[in-house]
Structure formats: C-alpha cells, structure tokens
Design goal:
Metalloendopeptidase, three-stranded antiparallel sheet, five-stranded mixed sheet, Collagenase (Catalytic Domain), MetalloPept_cat_dom_sf, metal-binding, metalloprotease, protease, alpha/beta, disordered N terminus, 10 strands
Length: 357
Amino acid sequence: MKLALLLAPLALACPPPFNDFRFLGNETVSTETLVRQALAEPQFGSIDGVSDARNPSQRWARNPMTGATVVEYCFANKWVKRTYADILGRGWMKWFNKIRNPSQANGHSLIVRPAIPLVENRKEQYCYLTDGNGPNDSGAWNNAFPKSILIIKHWDKSDIQATASATVGWNPKDSTNVMLIHPFLLRDRVDELVDTVAHELGHVFGLLHEHQRPDREHYIKYECRKLMGYAECERRTDRKHTMEEICKSSDLGYRYDFPLAAQMSTENRRMVEDGREMEQYRNYPRPYDLHSIMHYSSRQGAADQSSWREAPLVKWKNGGPGYNPPQLITDRDIEPIYPNTEVSDGDADAIRYLYPW
C-alpha cells in the first residue's frame, strides 16, 4: 500500500514561488503573470516563516475579546465553493482532529471558519461580485468581506505542475492571503487532494517545509541531480554558476527556472520589498519531524518515479541529532520517505507555539 503511494503519479503541492503573497493575482494582474515575472526577477521569493517580526508575513491576529485566533475565508465565486468547499473542510478537519477546539486545555487559540459577511444579503455571498457560474468568474471585490481574509480560488493552468498552493502566514496587504486549488485530482484522487489542502493550510498558518531545515543532513539524504528539471537546467546554465551553486541557492534556482531546487534549499532568501532589501528568516524551535505533513515524500519532485532509490529525498535509517552519514552508502543506510497524510504531533506543537492560548 505504502509502496503504491510512493510510486503514484507525481502531484506536487505549493511549488515556488507561490508561497508568497507577491505572486497572487488580483483584479488588475493575474497570478500567472506575476509568477512568470518572478522567475525572471530572482529578488522575489518564498516566505520562510512568521514568528520572526522581521518577515513580511506574520501570524494571524488574535482577537483580544475572545482569545481566539480566527482564520476566516471566503470562496472566490459560486463554482469554487461548490467544487472545493468539502475538500477544504476535510483538509481543516485533519488539523482540527489533532488540535481540537481552541482552549487553555488544548494549548492553542487557532480556528478556521467561513467569514461572516459584514452586510446582510439574502443571496449567498462570495469574495467577488459576479453572477457567472464559471470557475474563474470574478468581478469587483465584495465589500461585505474584509480584504484581509483568506481567498479560496480555482487554479487550472496546465503548464504549472501542481495541485494546490497557498500564501504563508498572514500578509498585511489587501487581497493577498490566497489558497489556489487545482482540479487535477478531483476525478479519482480526491483523498490525495484533501491531504494536499491540509498541507497548504499548514502554510496558511505560517509553517514551512520541514525538509528545508538546515539540520536536515542528520535525518535525510538529498540529491539535487535527481530532481525533475535538473538536466534541463544544466543545459540552460550560462557558466556563471555551477549546478552545485544553483542547487544550493533558492535565488539561483528561480533565476535558472529550476524552482524545485529552490523548494529544497536550506538558505534564507534575500528579497526586495517596497524598495527595501530584506532577508527571510526561519525559526525552528522544535526537533526535526519526519512525520510532519509539511515534509515532502521521496516521490515528490523525483525525475525518475520508478524506484525510491532514485528519489531526491530519502531518510537515514539511523538518523537523528548529531548523526554523521556514511561516506559509502548502501541500502542498509537509507529507506524511502512515505507521504505524510495526517497532521503529526510535531505539527500540533508548532500550532501551539505559533498560536498559544
């Protein structure tokens, strides 16, 4: 069963640079336009956490009256709600079943719920004012909702290989907190899409990819050359940078149109925001968690899907804090990383850290 999951057709979640509010479209510019610009302008990048006050994105705000931290959302239009409401709800239930209601006893203040319109209307209301029934129909923003809430949108671009994407944490700019869901898995792999949406909700809450931690070498083995797109990137290099440099740097990964390498990078990213140079800071106050729903499996991003031995990510059988990997590696040293489909104890602890009661 697990092996079948490992070798299932590739379905990536949140490929860079989408986990960044600067890449989400609005009424005047599309997401795809911003993404293409980002790949050509490597000063943009993914947000690397929310607990450091220097980062552009922060934690969702706590209501001082109720003590709860409420992540409210709306659906872009009728079609999006009809298609994705159940999937979003099931994704949130994976978190709720682990952390339960916000309370002192449960140690956290987080809750996710549909936004209540500020203006009453007998008709069902959506993020945008539209009478259309199509997946991408959108008009002007519906002022019955604050622009700071999470917007659930449809994403159907066939040239971007992913199933969902979301911004990281809470972003202060209007209409910039967004989750995009692709219909790729709707027909016969809905459960996998639910798992992906649960992963994306982790980003919405401010969590990062576990496999990008700087201490990962004690737990997993990473080989950039086994990533999908490595050979194509190698042919594109202009000899100003080596593949080793491109694989290490998220900035260079974007510059050379090799986003999967950037998604694996352990380096902090430098970026320009409103004319100011900023660095995106990571914070990992808890032990490495191989079971995190935020950790990629061996198959994700693998150029060769035929065997886990050809995967870019595998785990050390004896890995742990201070573990020194052997120079000569055999099957006795490594094993595959299977997909994590549930919220782990470590994920729950991270929520309690970010959103304490």
